[in-house]
Amino acid sequence: MLPDFDLAAYAVSCHVKDVDLFTGKCRILHEFLTEYNTHVNLTRLTSPVDFCFKHVCDSLSIAKIFPEIAGESFTIADIGCGAGFPSLILAAAFPQLEITAIDSIGKKITFVKLAAEKLMLNNLTAIHGRSTELNHRKEFQKKFDIVTARAVAPSPKIYREASKLIKKEGRFIFYKTPQQAAEESELLEKIKEVKWSNSPVFTLPGNAGERLFTTGKIIHQK
User: Fold this and answer.
1) By CB distance 3.0 to 4.6 Å, which of 82, 90, 156, 169 could disulfide with 187?
2) What is the sign, positive or negative, of the torsion defined by CA atoms of 28, 97, 54, 56?
3) Side-chain half-sphere exposure of 173, counting CA atoms within 13 A
4) Low-confidence ranges of the chain (pLDDT < 70)
5) Does residue 132 contact residue 161 with C-beta atoms inside 8 Å?
6) Residue 142 and residue 165: Cα distance in Å, rounded?
7) What pLDDT is attached to residue 221?
8) pLDDT attached to residue 46
9) CA–CA distance, 47 with 52 (Å, rounded to integer)
10) Which residues contact 112 (CB under 8 A, 6 or more apart)?
């Protein structure tokens, strides 16, 4: 995607199996997002550099830290999916995953649905709604192996609004910066029914910033 960056090599490091198919879908997605964004404001990050590093690499990094995501058939709920990151990227990279993208903003969910159709991502479902509403609907309770969120809200808030979506043996995995994780740690300690931890800090390629993942495993499910 960029002359001086090997996205295929990064995808391999994140355990993507069909790298050519994945990078091809990323090119199509970038073209579609850039064109769509000219008449519907979805994201300010549409340049090739921002798209590559801050959307694709950031979204994909979860599989570098948790390689089982690349090989096992998990059900994943992406809370506040926005324009489809990480949902679209993970669905394109790992076809064995079943991903549900959730957002309260209709124009973003419309885009995610259209993009999923364009990329032929049969493993992605996009839902217009709030996680706090889905949290009280029987068909979504204890449905997901993993609940994730990226650049949406503080971890305690996401947990409160999505606590019933997770399976008994499931996990919360939230994309965070080290500063965000430090600011949230005291509040997370008060949530006694979940065991929280942070992954090692890592740096995204292209000097796109430091990241880590805040994870939570259910100890006592309500």
Assistant:
1) 156
2) negative
3) 22
4) 1, 3, 220-222
5) yes
6) 5
7) 61
8) 79
9) 8
10) 81, 83, 84, 87, 88, 101, 103, 124, 126
